Amino acid sequence: MEFKQYDTFDALASYKEDWNLLLKKCASVVPFLTYDYLKAWWQTRGGGEWPEESQLVLVAAFEGEELVGAAPLFHAKNILGEPALMFVGAIEVSDFLDFIVRSEDLARFLSGLIDFLLKCDDLPAWDVLDLYNLLEESPSLKALETEAEKHGWAHQQIHLQPSPTLPLPEGFDAYLAGIDGKQRREIRRKLRNFESSFVDGDLVFAEDPDTLHDEVDAFLAMMAQDPNKRDFLTDAMRRHLHNTAQVAFEDGWLQLAFFTIDGEKAAANMAFNFNKRMWLYNSGWEWDFREYSPGWLLLTHLIQWATENGIQELDFMRGDEGYKYKFGGIDRHVWRVIVKR
Predict the structure, then answer these.
(1) What is the DSSP letter of 201?
(2) Are both 2-162+336-340 and 165-315 of the same fold?
(3) Is pLDDT above 90 for 319?
């Protein structure tokens, strides 16, 4: 493998399609590793999570003209103040990250990458590889431990969060039959109550490019009604979410859904329909409609839609909020790996 370093995404733009095709062959096929998502994340440094002076360190591996691996990294001081190389996307707004390489190429890619990072004169000084949001099934976890042992470096693997997921059957009745009986009765009760409330409900998706910006604003306004999310939605974070929605829309995997009550938006969910999974990214609802439990109604209708439209799995993403388990979520876990020279 021949390794090359790039300090802008535009310098790799001619390999965008190759990047995304390679991603489909990797162990971690997640929307947060697409070329356009990572480029958009870098524009705001994750909605202001990292300082502007952070330095992009994109490393690509080639065999001849073929792109066979990518390490989307950046240089900054980590949360402990150490000069570190981290995954582009870290930490808060990109639920899952990894190297972009086929599993069968991972060992030699990672070995070559480490050697390249040690010898490259153009890199800023770094002491730590601080890699967040690796899924438990990622072969990178073991490969990083192996590389650390080979170099005699300190290695630490830290549990970050659970990340519940739910395999979906075909058909909503089959889904209901597979979850806890108490939750099944609760879903049916809320649906009956809504149906008897003499209002009309509908599930609608943002599909018009000319109104997408306004639809995202409507979604953000609902998010902001939650005091915890209101503080999260800085100007930079709003730009990040707008950029993410635009990228996902243009690439065909945005699923911005609203549940309307008598024609008014009552709840919203920004999700990604990617690789036959529905990735539930964030949500909000109008407090004026709280008597109808609009968030529950929206999620219930989204699950019904998913079971009827070929979605094989529902990914609740990082966090252990109770509703994820009530709707049938099964835990898997996300890790941080620290390799210190």
Answers:
(1) E
(2) yes
(3) yes
